[in-house]
Structures are given as C-alpha cells and as structure tokens.
Amino acid sequence: MKRRVGLGVALAACAAVQAAEPTAVAPAAKAAPATPDPKPVIRKPLDLRIGDVRKYMMPRDFQAAIDAPDAEKNTVVVEARRELLPVKYEEPIPTWPLGPLYWALKNPANSWRILLPDLNRAPDGPPEVVPPPIFRWGP
Fold first, then answer.
1. What b/e sequence results for 47-81 when a residue is b if at least 16 CB atoms lie within 10 Å of its CB, and e otherwise?
2. What is the per-residue pLDDT across 46-102, written as a single tens digit (0 to 9) for each?
3. Hey, where are the domains in the chain?
4. What is the pTM of this model?
5. Rounded to 5 degrees, what angle do the CA atoms 84, 90, 92 make?
6. What angle do CA 121, 125, 128 make, to 5 degrees?
7. Residue 105 pLDDT class (50, 70, 90 cuts)
C-alpha cells in the first residue's frame, strides 16, 4: 500500500514538473547577426516654454497680473483637492453576535480590530442634548 502511494506521489510530481517546463522551440533557420544601428537616434530636447500666456488666461486676469505689485507677480499658488483612497481599516466590522469572529477569520491581518471600539459606529443611547458643564477652578 505504501509503495502505491509513493508511486502516485512521484507520478504527480513528475507531471507537475513536466507541465511547468517550457516547450522546446525549433531552432530558427540561421538567423543573421544583429548589427547596431549606425546612426544614434537624436531626440528633440524637452521644450518647457509656456508660449503666449494670453492663450491660457482671460484678458482681465492677464491685466490684473501685470498691474500687480512685484511680490504678487513672483508668487505661485496651486490649488487642488487630493482624492482620498479608500482605506481597508476604515471598513466597518459586523456587529451581530458572531459576526466579528467570522470577520476575524476571513481577515486575519486585521483581526486585532475586533478588540477596539468601532469609531464608525454611532454611539449607543440618546444623543446628548445638553452640553456637559465646563470645569472651572473657582467661582
């Protein structure tokens, strides 16, 4: 019985190795040796000039930039909004009784999160309508 199991394992290993080996390619008919290109490719240098600024600005904005004091002419302000990518640790954890345990088994790298309070969950109980009193050291 042990010999049959060993033979089966050996045949399976040989089949896996044979499937992983690349197939042999027939040799090409005497390929000509590759010759280097006699002329190197000359690339055009990178052109970073803006060109005519009036193509990109409204006339009143262009005139305001020209009439501005020197400090404002040299200042560049770039405004952009960075898109936040979704983060895995911000996904909510299930709250039903056995949900956190099942979720921890599915996500072992993040299973530590079931021991912490879920910050995305709404607080239990009624909302606080009256603000808490401010602590002071005297009258």
1. eeeeeeeeeeeeeeeeeeeeeeeeeeeeeeeeeee
2. 888 888 887 888 889 888 878 877 766 677 777 888 887 877 777 788 888 899 999
3. 51-82
4. 0.30
5. 140
6. 100
7. very high
